[in-house]
Amino acid sequence: MPLTSKLPDVGVTIFTRMSQLAASCKAVNLSQGFPDFPCDPALLQGVTEAMQAGHNQYAPMTGLPALREAIASKLQQSLNVHVDAEREITVTAGATQALFSVIASVLHAGDEALILEPAYDSYAPAILAQGAGVIRVALRAPAFAVDWDEVERAVTPRTRLIIVNNPNNPATSVFGPADLDALAQLAERHDLLVLADEVYEHLVFDGRQHHSVLAHPVLRARSFAVYSFGKTFHATGWKVGYCVAPPALSAELRKLHQYLVFSVSTPMQHALAAYLQQPAHWQGLPDFYQARRERLAPGLTQAGFQLLPNAGTYFQLADYSAIRPDLGELDFAEWLTRSYGVASIPVSAFYADGRDQHLVRFCFAKQDSTLDEAIKRLAELR
Questions:
Q1: Which GO terms describe its cellular component (predicted)?
Q2: 7-21, 144-158, 227-241, 254-268: least confidently modelled range
């Protein structure tokens, strides 16, 4: 029987492609965004204790009450916002499931959603799978600041949703208060819902603060905010995240969520609920990752890369124009992997038009020894 694909233009992701190439070349993998250091043994012990205590059956659909209460307490401490744990927090199977569930819950065939590029690669396929259209507004290097007038001009009568990623992967830029004000004014004028991907909320550097939609009264009323314990606690394979939204929006999200995964790993939720009782477990993350950024950066510079500003996330963008200006981004990333044994991601993969800016992305969420080995190999470029 013939099958008509909903996503005919979607293939293997660039992350899978570059990680496979890195493995085959025995390269240092600074491409895909995952830590290569262990998560806290106390967190692992919490999972073990939860399993041994018999917490191995389905958790409540919306998430373990103790975990949702702990999340609410964390949001109060970190953002000074009150969130109703029962009606406004939904625990999900990672942030990607939350993102898809929100998009599928609010978009209908013929609607449009607006994204800012470079954009995380799951946004557009999730939109297209609903029969909706994607509006793309490009951010420009090196600052990747949002031109909110340009965004406004892109909105049409069919636009229902705007997706923002703050801090931004891969651009590494972060929103300031003025950005949230501009987003709020735009959303109010055009009656838009907002999906805020804030998975790198704690990875902001050089004394900056994370400015969340949850702390902005206007945006709070019309936003879904998505978070990831995998990103925060170095456990990406656990696939546990959560979505915060007003009661009416959460109720709609949960209608779909219950038929996608129903519930999320019970012992891991117990462990996370206990782990969140100590704010130090997330409050030290900016310094923890900034030290890794500063360990990698000089090596990249000495190898001939020009580094773009990095305000957040655990990625560093680098311009390779002084090294191989003759190569496009994908060709350069593959050449660097094969010839020098260090894998990166071409930034062109985050744009629908594949625009070439001679930029690649390196992940510095790695052990010191991993970063040092990458620096050693890249030194051969000069």
A1: cytoplasm
A2: 7-21
Terminal C-alpha separation, the chain: 56
Beta bridge partners of 243: 90, 226
Among candidate residues 249, 281, 313, the one where a domain is terminated: 281
* Averaged pLDDT, 4-30: 92
pLDDT tens per residue, range 141-182 = 999 999 999 999 999 999 999 999 999 999 999 999 999 999
70 with 22, same domain: the answer is no
Q: What is the CATH number of the domain that holds 200?
A: 3.40.640.10
For residue 33, give the 3-state DSSP assignment. Answer: coil
The CA distance from 204 to 168, in Å, is 10
Ramachandran assignment for 167, one of left (phi > 0), alpha (psi -120 to 50 degrees), beta (any other): beta
Tell me the C-alpha to C-alpha distance, in Å, between residue 88 and each of 11, 96, 231, 247.
35, 18, 21, 5
pTM above 0.85, yes or no: yes
| Interatomic CA distance for residues 70 and 274, integer angstroms | 8
Shared-domain flag, residues 132 and 258: yes
Same structural domain, 186 and 246: yes
**Cα separation, 18 vs 323, whole angstroms:** 20
Residues 315 and 219 in one domain: no
Q: Which of 281, 312, 345 is the last residue of a domain?
A: 281
pLDDT per position as a tens digit, 50-93: 999 999 999 999 999 999 999 999 999 999 999 999 999 999 99
Rounded to an integer, what is the distance from CA 23 to the centroid of its chain? Answer: 24
Query: What is the CATH classification number for the domain harbouring 20?
Result: 3.90.1150.10
Mean residue pLDDT of the chain comes to 97
Cβ proximity of 156 and 135 under 8 Å: yes
- Concatenate the DSSP letters of all residues of 205-236 into one string: -TT-----GGGSHHHHTTEEEEEEHHHHTT-G
In a domain, 226, yes or no: yes
Tell me what the mean pLDDT of segment 317-323 comes to: 98
Q: What's the domain count of the chain?
A: 2
26 and 50, same domain (yes or no): no
**Structural domain range at position 110:** 41-281
Establish how many alpha carbons lie within 13 A of residue 327's alpha carbon, considering only the half-sphere containing its beta carbon: 17
